[in-house]
Write a structure and sequence with these properties.
This protein is an all-alpha fold and about 350 residues long. Helices cover about 80% and strands about 0% of the residues. Strand 1 and strand 2 form a beta hairpin.
Amino acid sequence: MTALTTAPSARAKAGRERSLLDLVLRARELSILGVLVVLVAVTAAINPGFLSAQGVEDIFLNASILALLAIGQTFVVITRNIDLSVGSVVGLVAFVTGDLVSAQGGSMTLAILAGLAIGGACGLVNGLLVSLCGVPALVVTLGTLYVIQGLDHFVAHGRQINAADVPQALLDLGSGNVLGVPYLPMIAVLVMLAVGYYLRSYPSGREFYAIGSSPEAARLAGVPIRRRVLTAYVVSGLLAGAGGVLWLARFGTVIADNAHGWELKVVSAVVVGGVAIVGGVGTVYGAALGALLLTTIGSVLVVLKVNSFWQDALIGALLLLAISVDRLLALRMTRILRRRNARHAT
């Protein structure tokens, strides 16, 4: 009788904790959306041209690639790891695929396949070193960041890819639209919905959160930790590769330093979006909103003619604030759960 009553009790406890966590995550995402609305409203009141059709389209186009990278980074961060190489992967993929299609007269399909292959290979190397060799993720991805940057400069050798040499179909991917909706935001939204549904609805998706919440408990529960961490890095690499192809499609002209420093923007978007840097908490929806918020802030500062230095300073401040809020929320949730458990025990 005791065994029969214990199992439902444990499931009920897990359900209560999950409901509380879902409530906190929804609150974080709604707060980001609220800040975004207020920011846009205030800026539009100062400069009505900010909400022109072209201005809004530019914001979503510029946010699309960052959101795509943030979605991949979310996979990694929820497992208590980090990928600092994504910006370098975008730069390498953008130049190599541009060089490939311009020199060989290749097609958009060739560019996409090549970009995914390069990005996936970079993610695989990171994942193998972290999951199988046990090297700290910060060390691994910081090292591969510089290796990939060096490889990018070696391949470029001071050259530049011009938009005139890129297939028109690929350029249309970066500037075209369907019924007035640009392709790039559509791609980012579709990837976000697919990844978000997988992480929430599939047992294997929830295992990523289990690893981040408690690696030891996940191991005892039979979760294949190494395989999941490796998968997270491969997904991050694939989306970074896709981001590199979309970068080429969006801008046409590519040099070796493209997306330089974007790794910090991606991490900032993820953390500001409510994904805990210590793992186990967050959603791809919040990460995408974080990317949109950072992009909007950049556009607002340009419209208001504020020095670009303040953009980096503001992003840094938001990152510190988000980490502090995550810590306070974690402590608050711990106290709430302890009080609930104490009441149920009595």
